Amino acid sequence: MRIRFVVPPALMVAVCAVAICVVPVGAVSAQEHLTSGGKLKPEQAVMDIRHYTIALKVNIPDKSIDGYTDVDLVLSKATPVLLFDLLDSFHIHSVKVDGHEMPYSYGQNLIRISGIFSAGKHTARVTYDGRPHVAVHPPWDDGFTWTSDSSGHPWVAITAEGTGGKLYFPCKDHPSDEPNEGVDMFINVPENLVVAGPGLLVETTHSGDRSTYHWKTRYTINNYSIVFNIGNYKVVQREYTTVDGHLVPMVFYVLAEHADKAPHHLEVFERTVHEQERYFGEYPWAKEKIGIVETPHLGMEHQTMNAYGNHFRYTKVGGEDYDGLMHHEFGHEWWGNKVTARDWADYWIHEGICTFGDGLYVLAMEGEDAYDKYFQRTGRSIQNTAPIVLGKDIDEEAAYQGDIYPKGAFFMHTLRWVMGDSLFFPTLKGFVTDPAYTYDNLVTTDDVQNYFSRRAGVDLSPLFTLYLRTTHKLEVHVRRVSPGHYAVRLVDMPMTLPLEITTSAGRRVLRVGAGEVAFESDTQPVVDPRMCYLSKVTFE
Ligand SMILES: [Zn+2]
Asked: Long-range contacts made by residues 424-429, C-beta under 8 angstroms, separation at least 24?
């Protein structure tokens, strides 16, 4: 979830005071073309990544890293080559597979290891050093950020959503494969600095004037969440009780100079966690932690250690302080990290449903009228220049064009109206809590479509197709039959839908399909007055 379009302009009025909607996409990195995803390389199709171990010394004055990465993998069949992605920023010292030095080539951002590799489990170790790519304008582009806080302490961050893990460690850089058994990170830094990472802090060891932080997650994790942050951090924490009654540490790695702001920020954050759980079920990583880390960039949904860089700025929602950016990024713990699309083509599932969750916060805190206004603004912000599901094997750059935030969110708003709350909300929570669609089991748009159709007891594919695979709107034709008498029908929609119409007698809901449905009104009727659909209404 790039936050490039995270808060559509219309939504910002409601929830976000941060002026991030003016998208400086022109400030691209030299590596912009090295987007992740796309068609899976055949050499990597036989490879199932199980685990990464990343052990790096970080040389801050030199802006370089030095160490090794172990890749544990399982081959589905024998192969003469192991292929890993790694940007050409580095010097490789050695490549070993199962402890044996192996011949390799390194170029065009790939490490090609030659040998005879049998089916089954292997471990490849790549030892390397170099200067990773530096981010130009994070988080809108990727790379390392080397900066310092106001007290002069170094402050290092990584953003990698577009480029993927290959930004700084050898990996299979494709959304269809995550390390199912998690990641171990051993990050060595000057001893006056602190490292924040994913999962749990296993131990911190000291040697000379350096410290090594061992962070470990046992959960599957996407490549772009496998990052660390370095700074003069204080750890401010409290305990959070999940909706299912589990105690989870809520941890904030905050710059020491901002530590006094952390307690209030955690209060705001706690409301966010609580409201996300209300609609999406228990926090997905309750066995590890709820984490945020202060970063020099605005934000990013790094699993169990969300990047936070919004400078403690809040808006009011429901009379309470609210951070829309943090709320959105945290929503990705469910939509993106727990539920993960296997192809960038389906990333509306991450951004659209997560953005819908931002609207649900407004619903919970301010009620239906505020929610309606929120989605009216969302609807008006949709550009409709291209479908939000563009096919298959899409890469990251292509996926993030278009309307995946507002139109994906608006689509869920439409589904809520079509299904009704008593069916829609259990279905939404059902999907995000179903083992078949979470954690190791990556998903597609068809999975969402089939699940919602099954739960609704009706084939919803025409609606999914209209909103996700086309740029068409729901066409509604209204005909004045005689004074005070009208007939309404849908065009090119092979299912009936509930349609609200304001008549002289007030609002009423009609079930409308291809055939005309008659109704009466002494005044000009208003179709879909609350904007439950993206519609085009024609009066014949
Ligand atoms: Zn997002």
From this structure: 425/279, 426/455, 427/451, 427/452, 427/455, 427/456, 428/279, 428/280, 428/353, 429/279, 429/280, 429/281
pTM for the complete prediction? 0.93
Mapping DSSP onto H, E and C, the string for 376-418 reads: HHHHHCCCCCCCCCCCCCCEHHHHCCCCCCHHHHHHHHHHHHH
Report CA(461)–ligand 1 centroid distance (Å).
25
Chunk the chain into consecutive blocks of 10 residues (it has 540) and report each block's average pLDDT, rounded to whole numbers: 41 29 32 68 96 98 98 98 97 98 97 97 98 93 95 96 93 94 98 98 98 98 96 98 98 98 98 97 98 96 96 97 96 97 93 97 98 98 93 79 90 98 98 98 97 98 97 97 98 97 97 98 97 96
Residue type, 221: I
Distance 86 CA to ligand 1 centre (A): 25
Cα(6) to centroid(ligand 1), Å: 5
Whether 413 and 531 have beta carbons less than 8 Å apart is answered as no
CA of 122 to the centre of ligand 1 (A): 35
Distance from residue 199's CA to the centre of ligand 1 (Å): 21
* Alpha carbon distance 88, 145 (integer Å): 18
**CB contact set of 243 (below 8 Å; sequence gap of 6+):** 274, 277, 278, 281, 282, 283
Q: How far is the CA of 350 from the centre of ligand 1 (A)?
A: 7
| DSSP reduced 3-state for 147 | strand
